[in-house]
Design a protein that fits this description.
With 347 residues, the protein is an alpha/beta fold. It is built from 16 helices and 12 strands. Helix 4 packs parallel to helix 5. The longest helix is centred in the last third of the chain and has 21 residues. It binds 1,3-dihydroxyacetonephosphate and iron/sulfur cluster. 1,3-dihydroxyacetonephosphate (13P) binds next to loops.
């Protein structure tokens, strides 16, 4: 199948997620049960900033982590726990398993995928790579284990720029997949010669440049924070472009009283926790003639719920497995990224 056929195939976006209408007593009971199960199974929660606030607070209070995708990958390997419960989307669970094949990795819902991953199937991607053997293959972490296994480098949003800058300085040309907006932003910033797979995130792709310009006029004292999976018309208006961690740091450290935030809305939980006095406004996903499917809300991240997490732990379901041969190949470009982070960036 050609790339344009792959991208024109509709992906099934879950419209309805589990009802969040738990009573306070039910929420507390589920949290209690989860705390006990984590302890008795020597398990930790590794949660992304986009997940529900209840999951993030549980991860923190039980000694797990709440982080961006790079830090989630690193945390799993540092942890002494026998079981990692990854609250996020499937590629995050797969990365944890690839880096820790001896550990049990569970997820509250194995159906929690990512549009970037869905829009970059292994076979078509491999054919694309075969057409450009002289290019260094760099893939975003939001991909399947099999796509990672075909890559020279894996990157996350927090480290993509310095890695591509480094490869560009070495005179290498880059084949980039799957996020076209992030790829375009990196190519513009570094000047690297990059071939882009034309995928997009259904959440960030919805942010609208014209409506954002209108909103900025209404809030002249606001700083604009943008995740680089957003379209160019949004990125060019940003005061800060960066990973989820970088955007959270910006809210804490910048003096502005107000922030317009172009990323998934789950991030507001951590921003409010660390900067309670700041005013946060979601960047617009609508405007004249706009359609909005996700409205700043990742339908797959939302599949992680207290109820499913409790069930996962109690019944031992939702285990992530990666084909060992694929895992052995995929770990090479992932470890290359982690080595780069510690050697070149000192973290
Ligand atoms: P971060 O690595 O910045 O947390 O991004 C992950 C992601 O899925 C963004 O949509
Ligand atoms: Fe994937 Fe977008 Fe959801 Fe992030 S927000 S997990 S890139 S669909």
């Amino acid at each position: 199948m050609s790339i344009s056929n792959v991208l024109s195939k509709p992906i099934s976006i879950p419209k309805h997620v589990e009802s969040p209408l738990l009573s306070e007593a039910e929420r507390l009971a589920l949290k209690d049960s989860i705390r006990q199960l984590l302890k008795s199974q020597n398990a930790v929660l590794v949660a992304h900033y986009y997940t529900d606030g209840d999951l993030q607070s549980l991860a923190e209070e039980t000694g797990g982590c709440v982080a961006d995708s790079l830090e989630m990958a690193r945390y799993g390997s540092r942890s002494k726990a026998d079981t990692l419960i990854v609250c996020g989307v499937r590629f995050m669970g797969e990365t944890a398993k690839i880096l820790n094949p001896e550990k049990r990795v569970l997820m509250p819902d194995l159906g929690a995928t990512c549009s970037l991953d869905e829009l970059c199937p292994e076979l078509e991607f491999s054919d694309f790579c075969d057409q450009y053997p002289q290019y260094t293959v760099v893939v975003y972490a939001n991909t399947s284990a099999a796509v990672k296994a075909r890559a020279d480098w894996v990157v996350t949003s927090s480290i993509a720029l310095p890695i591509v800058q480094y490869l560009h300085q070495q005179g290498q040309k880059i084949l980039w997949a799957p996020d076209k907006h992030l790829g375009n932003y990196i190519a513009k910033t570094t000047g690297a010669d990059m071939l882009l797979w034309p995928g997009a995130c259904v959440v960030h792709d919805e942010f609208k440049g014209i409506a954002l310009a209108d909103l900025r006029h209404l809030h002249p004292d606001a700083a604009v924070l943008v995740h680089p999976e957003s379209p160019d018309s949004v990125i060019t208006q940003a005061d800060v472009v960066g990973s989820t961690t970088a955007l959270i740091k910006a809210v804490v450290t910048m003096p502005n009283p107000t922030f317009i935030v172009a990323t998934e809305e789950g991030i507001f939980w951590k921003m409010r926790q660390l900067a309670p006095g700041k005013r946060l406004i979601a960047a617009p996903t609508a405007g004249v003639g706009a359609t909005c499917e996700s409205c700043g809300h990742c339908p797959w991240m939302a599949m992680n719920s207290l109820k499913k997490l409790e069930q996962t732990l109690r019944l031992g379901i939702g285990e992530i497995n990666v084909d060992p041969d694929v895992g052995r190949r995929a770990i090479i470009p992932i470890e290359r990224m982690l080595d780069f982070a510690s050697r070149k960036l000192g973290n």
